[in-house]
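Design request, tokens follow.
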């Protein structure tokens, strides 16, 4: 008997996509994934080229999906933001989202919801301002990309599909992402503040992120932007909490000027920027955070 997938995921090889795929499969929710590699016949992986919209086969089998989850996007912090790198970062988000919407438009039976990754970078560098989903967009490259990214996903609304913009904070997981890069230095006692340490960090533990995606997929009243964050902290508070959890000192300060020399524009946009986003829409919808504090998160994802 042929089994038709219930959920379609792009970016399934990344940190979040892989964890989501595992979550759905563990709960007997069949998944299909999009890949740029040639897939084997009968596989639940489907070849696509999102930059030129090539999709080889499987439209019939995808016509029964309940939800599409679009997570594609190049790593923002991998290298300096040259003009070529910025084009790549934009196209990996905006162009691939346009292709996802085009794919969904070709299905005989379209999914109820498209959950598309975005980022709290939408808000830009806002100091101590508390930011909800109703807050305006910021300035700068990253905010512009997020606006275009979300606009591309909004086109699915014209197809009768509910659209949710997952404005992700810094995803905390031991197996990848920003935290995994920090751990070796912190474990050697060489961690420390970035710049002044006063900038706000909007973070989310990977297990909670999975719960939020599941929640948004099944709560039909949720649409539009959703801040996928827990309680924001300053960089100094984050540094102290991580060092204490690992029972290490964190005295090696990284001055802002040194970060700018090393990383250029990316330093200000991704490392020194202050974004104090709160999960207003999730709380209003009744979502309960099982890991509301950094201490809770570290205890689960970094057992000592």
């Amino acid at each position: 008997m042929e089994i038709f997938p219930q959920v379609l995921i792009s970016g399934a090889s990344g940190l979040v996509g892989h964890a989501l795929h595992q979550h759905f499969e563990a709960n007997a929710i069949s998944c299909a994934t999009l890949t740029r590699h040639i897939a084997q016949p009968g596989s639940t992986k489907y070849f696509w080229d999102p930059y030129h919209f090539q999709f080889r086969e499987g439209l019939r089998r995808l016509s029964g999906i309940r939800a599409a989850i679009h997570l594609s996007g190049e790593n923002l912090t991998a290298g300096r933001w040259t003009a070529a790198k910025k084009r790549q970062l934009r196209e990996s988000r905006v162009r691939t989202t346009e292709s996802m919407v085009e794919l969904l438009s070709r299905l005989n039976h379209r999914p109820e919801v498209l959950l598309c990754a975005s980022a709290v970078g939408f808000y830009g560098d806002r100091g101590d301002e508390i930011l909800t989903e109703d807050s305006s967009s910021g300035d700068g490259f990253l905010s512009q990309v997020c606006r275009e990214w979300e606009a591309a996903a909004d086109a699915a609304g014209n197809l009768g599909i509910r659209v949710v913009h997952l404005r992700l904070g810094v995803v905390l997981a031991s197996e990848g992402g920003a935290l995994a890069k920090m751990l070796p230095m912190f474990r050697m006692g060489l961690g420390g503040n970035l710049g002044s340490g006063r900038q706000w960090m909007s973070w989310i533990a990977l297990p909670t992120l999975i719960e939020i995606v599941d929640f948004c997929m099944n709560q039909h009243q949720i649409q539009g932007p959703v801040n996928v964050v827990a309680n924001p902290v300053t960089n100094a508070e984050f540094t102290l909490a991580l060092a204490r959890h690992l029972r290490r000192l964190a005295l090696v300060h990284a001055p802002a000027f040194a970060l700018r020399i090393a990383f250029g524009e990316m330093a200000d946009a991704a490392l020194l920027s202050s974004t104090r986003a709160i999960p207003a829409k999730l709380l209003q919808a009744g979502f309960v955070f099982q890991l509301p504090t950094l201490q809770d998160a570290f205890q689960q994802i970094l057992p000592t």
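Comment from the thread starter after seeing the answer: thanks! Residues 198 and 243 are 17 Å apart (CA to CA).
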